[in-house]
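Hi R.,

Here's the chain you asked about this morning:
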Amino acid sequence: MGQVELRRALKTVDKDGLINLVCDLYRHHKQVKDYLDFYVNPDEEALYARCREKVLRAFFPKRGYALRLAEGRKAIAEFRIFGGGNAMLADLMLCYAENGVAYTNEYGDISMSFYDSVSGVYRKALLLMRDEGLLDRFRKRARLLVDETDGIGWGFHSDMMDAFAECYGMPSKRSSR
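And the predicted structure, written out as tokens:
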């Protein structure tokens, strides 16, 4: 069923029926509950803090050692879906990249798929910042990420430099030691 059919079907339901339907969805589906909770009480700061914690735990879980990159990307998607602001979204995406670099610097080279994930989110963050006019606000953090990847394998540093150069212009020689 598409959105047109859904609209047609919902138009046939009275107000009480719609209220009951929404309450049933709220009660039985966690994603709907979370979305409606945010809709009724939009607390962007709390949403950001919750998603940032999920990103951190994707790289550095409280127990165990297993990376959960998909959980970190899911937290970013959750923030985007709930309608968090673009500056906070860009900050959250940079947080993902920062944690990826910190993880590598703590545990050594990881894998190409790991670096593709981290550099992909970094690139998307920079493109979002460029489109929203936020590049100056995040320049130091974005640049520091490039510098901190120097010496990391699998072409990670090159990917990060290319993304930085695409949005900010070529970095100085300092990061290409």
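Residues 44 and 83 are 9 Å apart (CA to CA).

Let me know if you need anything else.
M.
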